[in-house]
Amino acid sequence: MDESIVVNNLVYNDLFEGLNFHIPKESFSTVSGPNNCGKTTLIRILAGEIKTKKQILIDQTYIENYKLDTLAKYIAAIFPTEIIFNSDTVSAEIKNVINQKDLTTKEKKNLYNDIISKFNLTRYQKNDPNGLPQNIKVKLKLALLTILRPKIILLDDVTNSMNKTERKEFLTLIKDIQKELHITLILTTKNLEDSLYSDYLYILNDKKLYLNGTPLDILKKDNVLNRMGLSIPFMVDLSVKLQDYQLISDIELDMDRMVDLLWK
Amino acid sequence: MEISGKNIKYKDFSFDFHISSDEIIGIMGEGKLQLLKILNLDYEVEGNLSFDKHILKESNYNSVKKKISFITNDMLEMSFMKTVDTYMESIIRNRYLQIKDKDKKKKDALRIIGLNNNYLERLIGTLSSSEKKLIQIAASLLSNPEVILLEDPFLNLDMNLEKKMGRLFQKLKDQYHKTIIFTSDNSDITYKYTNEVFLLKNHEIIVSGKTSDIYKDVETLLKYKLEVPDIVMFSYKVRNKKNIKLDYHKDIRDIIKDIYKHV
After folding, report:
1. Which of A44, A60, A125, B193 is most buried, by the most CB atoms less than 10 A from its CB?
2. Is B259's Cβ below 8 Å from some Cβ in A?
3. pTM, full prediction
């Protein structure tokens, strides 16, 4: 499979000592790990904010060989506490970005309406975008990115301040967008439940890549993850422990189905 | 300290409440931070706020305010300081705290939260975000508060740090008789680490009371679309669908044993 990002023997301060991994093109990956494992720093490195030399390949080209404006079109990152918008209203912000595209008036209007409804922003159209709650800011920023269409989108800990319902909604939305627009999407989070929406899970620990694979394969390693200080999603944890008692044979993520499985 | 509010009105808010002393209280939902700030006496509100049965008035405002510490998620105040010691000194100066033996007081505060004396010399820039949070809590103890208010202290903590914070709150309550009141968006946290909860919706207190009672009444939580912890939801579904009296547990190992007993 084609690689979108290759991290090759990355050494950085005290955080990484020879970090190696690659992210397949058009995949949705979650990067997780205990506090201070370097998740955010990794995203800053991949976004080109922190300089590296011959350690990061984006689409087979070393990141330092991209011109800044080309890189900005190629790869975009969202850091939830650092989002700043230029316009006075949400609708103006979206329209300004749409206007950068070569589209007819009708197409622009349709695109605007699509964006507003897909990202559930109808009630915020007249609001000051910089005054919005952080979760809505993240959604708006992501909406703007889907207009600009970078090939890679990096989301740094964006689900952190969301409650369960908001989290589910948001993760379903980004999974849809990732599939629809064929984007390589990377999400960092400390909540491993988020990874159930993604194709791959990478765990950073001890200055290196500690585990990687499909989320369920990694999440089954409850002892290793717990020792690291990571909590396992409830349904996975329950499944793994019930397997130990030989009460079920497979991981079951749906609570109702689990109840029916146990008491037929 | 016992705190109660009668006919409290502030902007969209309108509510009555009672907080017993020496408890750990969680506040969830829309308007949680405003409620925390009302308890910190940041706003002028209508109605009667009482502290230890004394109604808050201009005459006792200062003495009540001294008994309350507020810990925000804004680390700005700290980030301008060089070391933990200078940060604590600035707190003593800014809050006009009268402390006889400042050095001992600072070391005691660190000891209570489980950090050693060496931390006084640590550069603020070298502290992790969770260490900064602990230092904030230590500094808040310098004024001997009876009530400690915290803005989402569990945010950004991994599981080990989360458990540590939970144990610290328990210790502050049990050994030092502090009332701990914090906000959170996560029902798993409030279920595990509080004795009482206030669940808000649209700036109103919808449900409040003992944590163990409230999270057993899943029907009410669902009715108001309030978050239910997964572990509680599972027991609820088993009880409801299969008519099996699975208990409500906090630890997954306990629920596994209970399931094993019942299958």
Report:
1. B193
2. yes
3. 0.89
